[in-house]
Amino acid sequence: MVFDAPPATASHSWMPSSPCGSRCIEPIDEVGTARVLARLAGVIGLVLTFPVLTAATPKSRRENLQRRYARAALGCLGMRLRIVDNRAAGQGASNAGFADPGTAVMVVTGHIGWADVVSLAAVQPVSFVARADMVDWPVLGKLAQLTRVIPIERARLRELPGVVGQVAQRLAEGNRIAVFPEGTTWCGRAYGSMRPAMFQAAIDTTTPVQPVRLRYLDRHGVPCTVPGFVGEDTFADSAKRVLRSKGMVAEIVLEPLEYPGLDRRDLARRCEIAVRGTDRSRHGVLDTEWIESGNTRVQDPSVDQQVPESVSATAW
Q1: Residue 12 falls within a domain, yes or no?
Q2: Is the pTM for the entire model greater than 0.70?
Q3: CB-neighbour burial class of residue 183 (10 A; exposed 0-12, middle 13-18, buried 19+)
Q4: CA 59, 65, 68 angle in degrees (round to 5)?
Q5: What CDD domains does the record tag this protein with (predicted)?
């Protein structure tokens, strides 16, 4: 079991990377040590009982069980869940989930940290495309296995077509799959562009895409960066920060479905507009402008690294 697995670092020039780091994390109100220990005990209890109850529950009722566990996990982390459904009548699931059982959908959202997995599962259980070492993590590792995570080694581009193929197969079978097209984590106030590669699976299977606007808010309703898993963070660092937080809300906004069309770049752009709206990528109170460099927004000035469109679009 790897408890201090750090975020993946860039091993080639077109691998998605984020300039976010410790300077992005702004403190919010915290609870006392006793409350932190109680939350940790609750999380451990959920981890220990989840596999047993899942095995003992009929398949027809497991989805509801998994959603309840994810919501309980958010509660143990000190977060409340808020779901806002902006979809037109007839889109998505009748209970404000992503889709009705047996209906395929690709869920796309920005990536802030490991808490994103729990927050999305609290809306409705989905399978994820996630970093390969997640299965070795405490807490999330077991969840990753039970939700049939599709592992991806971002440093190995040759494996990417195979991962896209797995996503397409799952979608063709009527499953819900969540992907993070930015390819890495950002702090929640700055963000990267959505890479087009994963969208090919939706196009190949004519599967609708569900854009999700995911934010973490403090007790005053202001976006916060505490759940960010960035820079030199380890899982332990991030988990301690979240467990100590007070009054956080995980806000999930379900935007209208995007239909795949024939061009993955166009689909990626449409989904990015749906997820980001008019928001500008910047770091909190810092008056920093963010510009396009290849397919990733980076701080100006920064390393002058242009990625050829033919390479980056194919890879990501």
Answers
A1: no
A2: yes
A3: buried
A4: 160
A5: LPLAT_AGPAT-like
